[in-house]
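Chain X:
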Amino acid sequence: MTNLLEETKNYLRDNNKTIDDIKWVGNNKFYFDVNEFLNIANVEYDSGYGAPEVAQDLLVVGDNWWLERHEYDGSEWWEYKEIPLKPNKKIELKALTISQAKKLGYDVSVGWENLKSINNIEGDNK
């Protein structure tokens, strides 16, 4: 069994955040008081495989970061997200899909490609 509050605190700590860094909790339609969340989140749930128990649209939000729920085959957890910084490098966009890249003659596989390979960008290995 997993305690949702302790799990939340651990994910925050792993990302150099604390409960004090939380600005609001809710989903993309409504929010509720952080203290209400802290009280109700002090609950045990089965985070293992099966059906997810925690509301899948639950968000814990801070300045430029958030925790969101994820699951695979019923196993569930928090994922930490940050607003990405805009890169300095700009490219000319040529393709967004494998089929577009293949039509341009680029050497791509059947899937799991990234923007760099789909757009045939050389260098920087990122």
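Chain Y:
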Amino acid sequence: MKTTDGPDDPWTGVADPIPGARTEPGPDESGAREHPQDGDRREPGERLAEEARKLAEAVVGQLGEVRQRVVEPLLRKHPEAAAHLGAAGFELMAAYRSFVADKERRWASRAAPAQRVDLDAPDDEPRGT
């Protein structure tokens, strides 16, 4: 199977590289370990929480850089488009709220089917001990 990762890749140089992205995995990114390193006595949940925190920090950092490199220049060049997109976002949110409120109203107003249970009716069988 031929891949396009290399000098023959037609997309090479078309897009700007992602800031902070690595082309090859670093020493700590070669894959998941089955067993914790010697000396790491934390619970698996603690290690998972730490990795999730690191991932969230990396994602937030990347989003901030994308905003600076892509979004902000577009907003400066086309402020009228930004205003229209903002208004469209508010309209979409209002439509969504209306839709959800209508569904909640219908769901909450449904009368649940009820079965009448007569607790005072005499039993045919005596209650035993």
